[in-house]
């Protein structure tokens, strides 16, 4: 599938990708106009188009970085709050409720990492297309430096995801301990924690069975995660499967580490995916 069409299809399900899709389409049109002017020998006109293109690209890059930094601040605050709550939980029912929130948050982080990697791919492909069609580079936005931009921070996103998974693991273990203690009290004739307030006991099948989450686990836990999170995550995963299947060699899917980031950058800088 052509990258532009893939972006457009993904944007129908993921609102955060819409701006990436629209920007990619605008930049493609700019490059086509520049190539046309250059083929006519209008070098003065080409210089003007080149300046406009560089300014637009620089502005887009600044917006990507600003979006990431703003979201980073929100993520760090929410993550620290969830970890703090996890340390202070005292009931099995409280564990269940907090696990649900952690799973929701985990899904948001996966989608945010998807946005970051897709934004990098789109930017790298535009720079490649510009070089191919015009023979020039954009000094203000060198392709080899994209992996150092704030918006492309897969290792940071992965660290957030792993911390969230660790919080879920802690809550699952604590929930099992509290449920066991509650059960022993109930057998001794005392009401269980979940029944004191007239509520049903906490059910084990409402929580994730595994720490390392995947979409099948989220969808199979009886409504732990909202349908919207599941659908959007499925779309994100399908997008990268399509990118890999259309590549000459499978693209590297990042997990963590600057070495992997460089590997991903290298795979994109080669002509793996249809540039259209």
TrEMBL record:
InterPro entries listed in its UniProt record: SPX_dom, SPX_prot
Superkingdom: Eukaryota
Disordered as annotated region, ranges: 180-201, 248-276
GO biological process: cellular response to phosphate starvation
Annotated SPX domain residues: 1-144
Entry protein name: SPX domain-containing protein
UniProt organism field: Ostreobium quekettii
Lineage: Eukaryota, Viridiplantae, Chlorophyta, core chlorophytes, Ulvophyceae
